[in-house]
Amino acid sequence: MYADRTEEGALSAALDDKSWDAVIDTWSADPRVVLESARLLGGRVGHYGYVSSRSVYAWPIPVGLDESAPVVDADPSSGDGSDYARAKRGAELAVVDVFGDRALVARAGLILGPYEVTGRLPWWLARMSRGGRVVAPGPSDRPLQYIDARDLAQWMLDAAERRLGGTYNAVSQPGHTTMGDLLHTCNDVTGGHAEFVWVAPEDIEAAGVSGWTQLPIWTPPTGDLAGLHGGDVTAAYSEALRCRPMAETVSDTWQWLRAEGYPPPASGRGELGLGAGAERRLLAIALSR
Fold it and tell me: Are residues 90 and 62 in the same domain?
């Protein structure tokens, strides 16, 4: 069964009189679409799992944030999906309004693994495979927090079987791996051709280079971006969320890229990764120390 959710009446016609045990919804555009879907499915589905985002929290996201932290204002009936945080929050409200405690809201953090089309881990793997001196954003023991998409999917399916409701930060524990371990593993699986040049956070800032986008995955240990790798996941782990070893995620992602090639850049997200000029500037700063 297929239908264009944005086309008036299309989903209703496709649903006919069918019913289902559970729904998993990943929509990230205008929340009105989720509200309409939830209303159509309210009496036909036992459980509604919605993949949201930790982006719904009011910025800046503090280190140690749990599910009770303030969130952005949003309207579940809005047809505007241009603001990602408000779109996700609006969809959360829509699902909970219709399904109540039959709704699971999974506020995912950084999602990695095979078929990660945003391209953060693929960017590092590609850079390592080219070898030579590589900017390694420090400190090397910077704790990271993310989730493999397969672990998120499995947890949400298990939760659907248990009819688990509520809102959860669905991401690994802080320090599931470190920046150093991640980069060394990327280098190992791609052939070990890269030579790391570690650059301090203050030098990265002085060079006008940003974390998360220009240096994918990494964020400085202090400042507005620090909380992206420091969320409280006690609730999800108490409900059996588990994350596979980092080496498995990296190795499987590399195998996918080698088998199927690199995905095209994600639309609407801007340029990802460190350009050659910025890389030269950072290397020059680090090597001059």
Answer: yes
Q: Determine how many CB atoms are found less than 10 A away from the CB of residue 288.
A: 7
Q: pLDDT per residue over 49-86, tens digit each?
A: 999 999 999 999 999 999 999 999 999 999 999 999 99
Residue 156: both structure tokens together? 């949400």
Q: Are 116 and 65 in contact (CB under 8 A)?
A: no
Q: Compute the C-alpha angle 79/83/88, nearest 5°.
A: 75
d(CA 289, CA 275): 22
> pLDDT tens digits for 268-284?
667 899 999 999 999 99
The DSSP code sequence of 151-197 is HHHHHHHHHHHHT--EEEEESPPTTSEEHHHHHHHHHHHTTS-EEEE
Residue 178's domain comprises 111-148+173-258+270-287
> Please, are residues 250 and 116 in contact by the beta-carbon 8 Å criterion?
no
Same domain, 129 and 243: yes
